[in-house]
Amino acid sequence: MLRLFTDPHGLLLEHAGSVRRPTNGLTIDILFTAAQPLALARTAWATGLPADLPSQPGAPIGTQEVWAAGVTYLRSRTARMEESKDAGGGTFYDKVYNAARPELFFKGTPHRVAGPGTPVRIRGDSKWNVPEPELTLAINKEGRIFGYSVGNDMSSRDIEGENPLYLPQAKVYDRSTGLGPCLCMTDEPLPPTTTIAIVINRDGAAVFSGSTTISQIKRPFTELAEFLFRDNAFPVGAYLMTGTGIVPPDSFTLRTGDEIRITIEPIGTLVNTVA
Fold first, then answer.
1. 91-114: string of b/e by CB count within 10 Å (b at 16+)?
2. In the CATH hierarchy, which fold is given to the domain comprising 65-273?
């Protein structure tokens, strides 16, 4: 297992506690376009120079698009049916949960992504905003999953609930995506017991926390990746968020200044504040 971090000088690779800076010109885009990204990263680590992890890493993204899957957990299906019931769209989500075809939607381009320690945003025209903590797949240009990151799919629940056709506005805007703190590369699937946990702090105190495991995801990750790449080319690969199983109560909404902490081991903890 290798973890890739970024800093202003480029990439850093960590393996078994040893951190090295590649000297072979490796970039994130090169990894995502490689047929064997992990093998390439291992070579870069073995030939790299000793280094230290950055105190504030950047988002582990090059020029990749970020996409997302929805209604992959029963909890997400229930929440989205409830938020959309007044608009008559509640049954859409029940049908998607049980359908052969998953819900996939575009989430953002690199300039819309917030890395660790940088602010994510809530929309100025929304009154009900939540983070969605999600395991995020790193998929190379050939459609093969080679790693994982921590994702935050910031969502305006009132906008989507008003009409499901407003989903792009509820999901895609500046700094609507959190990603980091690293890209964890492995040739072994993560165990079903892998935990996704979130804590939201406000004025120094936790106002919401929750956790789930990836065993609760309805669809295999390979299935989600295969549907994303159907009739769709990604010349520099893509990131794919896999949905959320943690939904705050309907009475909760994010506020400016809130701190969002999402932890998925062995990847790490993504921390963002709300702007």
1. ebbeebbeeeebbbeebbebebbb
2. Fumarylacetoacetate hydrolase; domain 2 (3.90.850)
